[in-house]
Specification:
The protein is of the alpha+beta class and 476 residues long. It is built from 15 helices and 17 strands. Among the domains are: 163 residues, FAD/NAD(P)-binding domain; 125 residues, Guanine Nucleotide Dissociation Inhibitor, domain 2 (2-Layer Sandwich), CATH 3.30.519. This is prolycopene isomerase.
Amino acid sequence: MGILLMLVHLSCLVLVIRSGNLNLITQALEAVGCKMQVIPDPTMVHFHLPNNLSVRVHREYEKFIQELTSYFPHEKEGILKFFGECWKIFNALNSLELKSLEEPLYLFGQFFQKPVECLTLAYYLPQNAGDIARKYIKDPQLLSYIDVECFLVSTVNALQTPMINASMVLCDRHFEGINYPIGGVGGIAKSLAKGLVDKGSEILYKANVTNIILDENGKAVGVRLSDGREFFAKTVISNATRWDTFGKLLKGEVIPKEEENFQNVYVKAPSFLSIHMGIKAEVLPPDTDCHHFVLEDDWTKLETSYGSLFLSIPTVLDSSLAPEGRHILHIFTVSSMEDWEGIGKEEYEAKKQFVADEIICRLEKKLFPGLKSSIDFMEVGTPKTHRRYLARVDGTYGPMPRKTPKGLLGMPFNTTGVNGLYCVGDSCFPGQGVIAVAFSGVMCAHRVAADIGLEKKSPVMDTMLLRLLGWLRTLA
């Protein structure tokens, strides 16, 4: 076996079927010979915010801007300028062939082909969305709205969200629109797995990795499972968080300096509480959107536990997912592991029911009267659930900056301080979000391919570039 890839979790809210180089999920499916049928989603999310601010993010960009400016007509110019900068970044990204930024031959080749686009991205690399928004927008409520948009991207406000990450999401949803996979988002993982097996890969399920094996020279050469089995390879790739990779899978080993720097710049974001329900269809109005975000009366509660609620109702788009006359309702909200530690089983179950009842009551008042009496089935997952089944330390959603970051400068790439070991996922550049995580996978594949001789590389230029990137991260 040449490469070991430790897969912990795959999660996607949407599938994008369109043209452009940022369409990475579809490209991955096509690479393994798979294609999925999709349903266009006319509204990416419907925001229900303080002061009766109700904004739909329409598939059509002009329609969305028209709705947003109807609430803030005095800020129309600022809105257009802020989103205009987002489009400048998105278009630059979408014009490039996306591969590893740690591979100098690719990097310099892209620069010589498209210098303006590369310089555009370099300019925005150390900048955050909140700072750009404040250049053009003064209305406090509109700035709070931008915070909410960024919170969906990164679980932090706009001042802590890298501008490049925000731009990828805020524009991608309008670039030929968002589409939902028929049969549910679980079909993405199933299709990828089938395609990989069909192409000759082997996937082991219920294979819990407990250790990364190092040889006498400190090189990663394999993994050990909880049942004692060992697998060896030239390359080991971990999509566990960097905290899990270097705190658990390499427990007892000296943590590389770069990983110490990462943990000084980033902390674990909280986890979340999720509620899955089966409900009677008549409780939902006929024009109900698929996705909703609810923050009732206080902007300051955006990032607090249970302060804001995200809802997904996939059966609005694909009724085949539930029995006739029923809908699936998925609710999730920020919740910290500390809220659920140190309590017994009975208290734990009672607390789950209590928190769920409070959330359902809020949704009854804001959106769906009679929701509680329409419930046929309900399951509640806590940070403990996510820690157990997603194998993520404290069930964390991912990394978030300790303080206001310098854009993406502090985010590590795929290579690590351990020879033969690579990381991929949301604790690697460019961070959280479906597109960002898919991008990290593409970058990692290219860097590994160069290192094992499947792509061209220059050892001298490699060394120089990696040192430069390491120095840039110290500026964060």
